[in-house]
Amino acid sequence: MRIVLLGAPGSGKGTQAQRLVARFGVPQISTGDLLRSAVARGTELGLKAKAAMDAGALVSDDIVIGIIRERLGQMDVAAGYILDGFPRNLAQARSLASMLAVIGQPLDAVVLFNVDYAEIARRISGRRTCPNCGAIFNVHDAATPGITHCTNCAAAPSLTQRPDDNEHTVARRLAVYDEQTRPLIEHYRAQGLLRSVDAQGAVDKVTARLVAVLAPPAPAAKRRSKPKPKPKSKKKSKAKRVRKPVRKAARKAVRKSARKVARKVARKAVRKALRKKPRKKLRRSPRKRARRQAPGPRL
Q1: Domain boundaries, the chain
Q2: Model pLDDT for residues 248-257, shown as the tens digit of each residue
Q3: Of the candidates 53, 34, 4, 50, which has an alpha carbon nearest to the alpha carbon of residue 181?
Q4: Sequence-separated (6 or more) residues with CB below 8 Å from residue 64
Q5: Could you read off the pLDDT of 2-37 as tens digits, one per residue?
Q6: pTM exceeds 0.85 for this model
Q7: Which of 162, 182, 189, 195 is catalytic?
Q8: Is residue 2 flagged as an active site residue?
Q9: CATH architecture of the region 2-114+173-214
Q10: Which of 134, 161, 203, 210 is the most buried (most CB within 10 A)?
């Protein structure tokens, strides 16, 4: 499974990505987490990205692409991955496609999270993150209202709010999304990769919709149809070409045999007729001859 989660900031991509990781066992690759880790470690890329992140702007493509290239080269992504927050513009999408083409592992799907902007503003302002495991919670969530500590870690550390998760930067981040990231929707739709999911509502319901969208379509039942008759070929088959002269020769032999038999029967009849003796004439007595020759009526 190699998928991209696409949507506005606060649409729930990170929360659903964690559930997909637990379900499918593939790693989540979040550019935000990678950049924040780089900032915390004080790397060169992290220092360059810090100013843009604090202002709610997008980090330059060179920095993001470099981090993603290093992450995709690690062993744990061989079976698949979930890209969360990348790509964010057409240039990054083309760079990602080039990287995946080199290793022969194209994307399987791009899932678009549809959420109203008013709901996004409420989510971002109430979002909290565990500094230990990275789990994301929301103080406005009905399941965990007003949560302040992580329920996944044994130590239950206090949840923190990202510096860019405040109302002052929400409007700016949404404007940047509309300008740079939204064109990716048509880009991936044209490639046949885009799948859309309603990301509003309870987290469990959104997860069920997401899993249903990612599930492969069931094979359609095959209808039994009558076999199409094969078109008659004008060219005679080999069997027909062989049978015709055989039948012709057989009829000729039968006629020849019949004539032969007829001649044989005729000859036999002639010979029999020649052997037959002529019948002898019966001699009459003198009295009968005289009676026949005598004139007058016969008594």
Answers
A1: 2-114+173-214
A2: 777 777 777 7
A3: 4
A4: 31, 35, 86, 88, 92
A5: 999 999 888 888 889 989 999 999 999 988 788 888
A6: no
A7: 162
A8: no
A9: 3-Layer(aba) Sandwich (3.40)
A10: 210
